Amino acid sequence: MKRLVILISGRGSNMAALLEASASGELPVFPAAVISSSSDAGGLRIAGALGVETRVVDHASFDCRAAFDEALAGTIDDFSPDLVILAGFMWILGDEFVRHYAGRLVNIHPSLLPAFPGRDTHRRALAEGVRFHGCTAHFVTPDLDRGPIIAQAVVPVFDSDDETSLASRVLEEEHKLLPRVVRWFAEGRLRMVGGRVCVDVD
Ligand code: GRF
Question: Topology of 2-199 in CATH?
């Protein structure tokens, strides 16, 4: 079974969706560890309660990104993962780190990339007046939020939406999309063709 390491920084609802899918047998992966960049991330308690090993690599205790990246990679590699998931991990990782995990580092981003890379995606989507918004699961490359797209989910944007209502509609889709993509990876159904991801569907 493929070994999964999940990186979080906060609430951990995407992490919880993965751990629950794995516990129910729906997702054929072994969640080897959850690693947080902050000791007060709520997701750490959820992972612990589900019996998953947790570690903290506290971003605040490093004075440069390279040192943080190195400590983080060392902690990840202790668990020999086949796949590393950024599930609400809030820090930008350096090129060396990203290259070390090439083809096995996946991020879930709350917008339809390439629209709205970076932060505050829901606020920016509302400000632009887009009628559709959503989320993207993609392989991570050194270009922020620009790696090969694996899958996306789309939601409508209503005139009555505010940031909270839109975020919650998108989050509901993230919780379905991320386990689906991880299952494709675990089943060997993702292929790169000319820099793009192809999925072998059922
Ligand atoms: C999610 O919307 C994720 O896409 C973004 O940050 C949020 C994290 O939520 N990167 P959670 O910690 O998974 O609940």
Answer: Rossmann fold (3.40.50)
